[in-house]
């Protein structure tokens, strides 16, 4: 293939390849290639608190969670250190 024939072939490929892909896969690509329940629902997603009361409630919740995890971690460390204190 040389010259004009090659150019006609390349032009045909450039035009027909996307058309062929669209014909093969169809028009409802959202239903064919989508993952069901991929995006979280609004009730499961994080909601940024905007009101002052909501912000205070969120800070109290985070503070309580942090203190609970700290107490839990200290209790576990305390349980692990007791046998070593008896050996010394």
Automatic annotation (TrEMBL):
GO terms classed as biological process: mitochondrial respiratory chain complex IV assembly
Localization, UniProt: Membrane; Mitochondrion membrane
Transmembrane segments: none
GO CC terms, sorted: mitochondrial inner membrane
Keywords: Membrane, Mitochondrion, Transit peptide, Transmembrane, Transmembrane helix
Membrane topology qualifier: Single-pass membrane protein
GO molecular function, one term: unfolded protein binding
Main location per the UniProt record: membrane
InterPro entries: Pet100 (IPR018625)
Coiled-coil segments: none
Family of the protein in this entry: Belongs to the PET100 family.
Protein name: Mitochondrial cytochrome c oxidase assembly factor
């Amino acid at each position: 293939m040389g010259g004009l024939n090659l150019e006609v072939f390349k032009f045909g490929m450039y035009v027909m390849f996307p058309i062929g892909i669209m014909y093969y896969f169809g028009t409802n690509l959202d239903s064919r290639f989508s993952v069901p329940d991929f995006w979280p629902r609004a009730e499961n997603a994080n909601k940024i608190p905007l009101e002052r009361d909501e912000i205070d409630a969120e800070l109290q919740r985070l503070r309580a969670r942090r203190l609970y995890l700290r107490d839990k971690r200290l209790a576990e460390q305390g349980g692990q250190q007791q046998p070593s204190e008896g050996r010394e």
